[in-house]
Amino acid sequence: MHVAYFPELTLLFAEINFPKDDNVEEAFIDLTWRPPHGESKDMKVPLVPDTTSLKKIGVNMHSSPTEAYQMEDQYNKWLSACLGYDVVLAYLGDNSRSVLMSTHQRSNQSQAQQGGWLSSITSKLPTSIGNIISGEADDKITFADCAPFLVVNETSLHDVSSRLPDGEEMDITKFRPNIIVSGAEFSWEEDYWSELQTSSDVKLHLVQNCVRCVSLNIDYSTGKPGQGESGKVLKKLQSDRRVDKGSKYSPVFGRYAFLGKGGEGKVMAVGDEVTITQRNAERTTFGESILCCDAVQTNVMQTGLVFLAMASRQHLSREDYIVFPLADSL
C-alpha cells in the first residue's frame, strides 16, 4: 500500500525497539495509530517472527514480485480496525525483490573497490543484506520502493519551502529519505552526484533519480490530501523539476542509492562529514545505465550531516514488512 492511494497510512507510526543485549529474537516493532480525532492505539510486532506456521503469500510491488509470510490474525485485525478496511500484514523473511532499474555505471575509468556500511544490529537480521545493498549484477531489495537508500539534499528542501507561504516549511518526511546531507552550496546539485564517501569510510553509489507523485500533497496530521498551498507541492515542483527524461511528467527530488562493496559492518552516523567523490557528466535517465564523468570531485561539504533515519517520524530504516488491502474489502 502506498500513501498516494491510501493517505490514511500516514497516521501509522513505527519504531524498532531492541533489548539492551541487542538480541534480535526479542526485538519488536512498536506500531502506533494516531488519528486526528480520538485516542491513539499501540501494538507490538516481532521484528523477526517465527515463520514456521505462517502462510506463504505472493506480493507484487512495482512489477517486482516476491513471496512473503502472512502474519497472524491478531496483527491483521488490529490494522484493519485502524484503517477501516481489511488488510494483511506481510513479513518478507529471507525473500527479496529484484531491482528493475539499472544500477550500473558506464565510465572510461575502472572503478576502485567500493566501501560500505552495515550496523551490527541490522547485520543480525535474516535478509541477505550483501545482495540487497550493493551494486551486484543481480540486485535485490526488500519492500523498499526501488532501492535500499534514498539520499536527499537539505539545501534543496529549503528551495521547496521557499515555494510555500511565509511561515510554512516543507515536511522532509514526505520525501521519505533515510539519508539527508546538509551543507551543500547549491540546491539541486544532488542531481549530478554519483558517489558519496563519509568520514567513516562509507561509500554510496547514487544510481537513479527519485521521481515524485501526489504523496507529497498528503497532510500527515489528518491522513488526507492537504489543504491550501501545502496541498499543491507536486504542482509547484512540476514547474521546473521535471528533469528526468525517463519520467518526463514527474518532478525529481532525491537520489536512489546502493552501498558500495566490501564494507559490511561499518557504521554511518549523524555528523559524518561527506565528500562528493564522483559526479555525473549529465543527469541520469531513469531506467538507463549511468554515464559517469572521468573527473573525480573531492570538495567536502561544510557540515555534511547524515541522518540514517527520521527520528521525528520514527520511520523504520529497513522495510521487511508491508501492509496491503484484501481485494474484496475495497
Key phrases:
single chain; 330 residues; mainly beta; M1 Pyruvate Kinase, Domain 3; six-stranded mixed β-sheet; four-stranded antiparallel β-sheet; 19 strands; globular
Model description:
The chain is mainly beta. It contains four helices and 19 strands. The chain folds into two domains: 7-96 and 318-329, no CATH class; 105-291, Beta Barrel (M1 Pyruvate Kinase, Domain 3). The protein has helices at residues 73-83, 129-133, 154-161, 233-238, and strands at 12-17, 28-33, 41-46, 55-61, 64-70, 87-91, 97-98, 105-106, 140-141, 149-153, 179-181, 193-198, 203-211, 218-219, 224-225, 252-259, 274-279, 290-291, 321-325. The strands form six sheets. It has a six-stranded mixed beta sheet. It has a four-stranded antiparallel beta sheet with strand order 4-5-6-19. Residues 106-137, 293-304 and 307-318 have low confidence and may be disordered. It holds the Pfam family MOSC. This is MOSC domain-containing protein. Residues 123-277 form the MOSC domain.
CATH architectural name of the largest domain:
Beta Barrel
Helix content: under 10%
Name the structural class.
Answer: mainly beta
Strand order of the largest sheet: 11-10-16-13-12-17
Number of domains: 2
What is the number of E strands?
Answer: 19
Question: CATH fold name of the largest domain, please?
Answer: M1 Pyruvate Kinase, Domain 3
Q: In the CATH hierarchy, what is the class of the largest domain?
A: Mainly Beta
State Rg: 20 Å
How many helical elements? 4
Overall mean pLDDT stands at 81
Q: Bin the strand percentage.
A: 25-35%
Q: What is the N-to-C succession of helices and strands?
A: EEEEEHEEEHEEHEEEEEHEEEE
Largest sheet: 6 strands, mixed
Cα-to-Cα separation, first versus last residue: 13 Å
Overall geometry: globular
Low-pLDDT residue intervals, each spanning 5 or more residues? 106-137, 293-304, 307-318
GO molecular function: catalytic activity; molybdenum ion binding; pyridoxal phosphate binding
Pfam family, one: MOSC
Domain MOSC: 123-277
InterPro entries: MoCF_Sase_C, Pyrv_Knase-like_insert_dom_sf
